Amino acid sequence: MSGDKAREEIRFHGAGVSPGIAQGAIHVVRDDLDDVARYRIEPAQIANEIGRFEAALIQTRTQILEMQQKIAESIGAKDAGIFDAHLLVVEDRTLIDEVLRKLEADLCNVEWVFQEVANNYAETLSKIDDPYLRERALDIEDVTRRVIRNLQGKAPKAFLALTEPHILVAHNLTPSDAATMNRERVLGIATDLGSRTSHTAIMARSLNIPAIVGLHNATEKLETGQHVLLDGTDGLLVVDPTPETFARYGELESKRVQITQKLAELRETKSTTRDGRHIVLSANIELPGDVDAVAANGAEGIGLYRTEFLYLNRTTLPTEDEQYETYRKVAERVSPDPLIIRTFDLGGDKLAPGAADVGDELNPFLGWRAIRFCLENIDIFKTQLRAILRASAVGNVKIMFPMISGVGELRRALSILAECKEELRRTGSTFSDTTEVGAMIEIPSAALSADILAREVDFFSIGTNDLIQYAIAVDRVNERIAHLYEPTHPAVLRLLKMIADAARANDIWVGVCGEMAGDIALIPLLLGLGMDELSAGATLVPRVKRAVQSLTIPECRQLVDEALELQTPSEILARCLELAGKRYGDLLG
Ligand code: PEP
Ligand code: MG
To answer: Which residues pair with 239 in a beta bridge?
Structure first.
């Protein structure tokens, strides 16, 4: 960079949700669709590209016909007639033949070739001094966009097939996108939308990809190819960084690396408080491949396996055997430490349109999600339960149900689990009959009736990500109101206390598996409330362990007593930061 002529750097501020520094060229993804990328194909792939093109043309034709019919019904046949010209485009032999010829000549992906050919056509027509032909140019542009959209819907998204390492700048990325990302090619992530507890952010942390969300309009201002420095800790994106910025970040990064190396020394140590209380410290995983990071970061097993990721990015449901194999391998890897498998939580921001479709909803987080979907799709639910039970024969497997809102749902889930055991007994399959079963407490109604639920299960795992969004009515993925998402809200504190007290009164253990468990500023609060287990993203585990090892239970209890007297989230946070700062201020930065 030092040879470049002097220029100003531009800074964008968002929320840093996955720590670390990345630098490199950006690839901008707009409008939930990619810019049409160009990539080379092998001659052997031509037939496949032609197949995709034909399918996209057929799909486009069907869409135009459907639209035409709807308009004919609602407005009249005359207006619907304008789509005849669109239909002519998808049937235009000259255009199609030119695409096929160029595909063979250029050996590039068909979206790129089609865009080139169609744009040339439209441009030529628009220059002719004839109103009819100029109209046709507009038709071609319209249909081209539609065909490309359909092509992109069928292909793996082009940004996922990047051949060079890039920093992705996108309006939004779905958890499914994040799940298929190639760590080698995606150096960093920056999105206009999103928040800390969105599953895309959670995935980025799991994959150890530095990420910033909530940049509002970065995709409008940036262009593919620009060079940036991304700071996923402080949420800063610097475009065209100056040599001074590079130097300052070099220093910052080496300090962070030093802290990380020091924390790595804790790997084999226990997460025990200074006064000797052992807190089970486990890791959350999304994909089976994440299991390597569990022991590597010194976690004691897996406190939350988000199995819904098995259902994303595919068109068929995973079979019982396929799931069994996956769970068995993960269970064996962490055994004798526990593996808590959460039954799948599709819906909300995790959609599996191909395999288990919950459809479009106006309020997906309040909709047909998790256990609600399972209790109406008993076969899909049972397939998973049988697979988990079978895996319990080889490891220390526990089961938990997400989004329990009351005892009725819990009892139905438990009775379906009992049926699955019966079925396995009949077929002679082995499983552990002592598998612990827990309920996630992540809906305020469950927290408020925790005393009733505690009598039915072996443990509670508190999903603070959802509990907070529902308690304060703040959509967890909406960056506009992210500042209102306050884990230290007095209402949240009271709900957490209610859950922990109910667990203790009923002699069951209680843990936290939401992002709050990975926030070292809040560990004093969680320990003071009496949490027995904390489960955080694997990369956060070493910091949490240091926090646990630095605190005593009496000082944390004292903090909770004081916090319960405070009135605002910021007062409670300040009190937490005060204690955390005294004990491990170097980690708070
Ligand atoms: C939670 O809600 O806190 C939780 C752990 O589950 P998820 O983030 O997958 O909704
Ligand atoms: Mg949840």
So the answer is: 10, 228
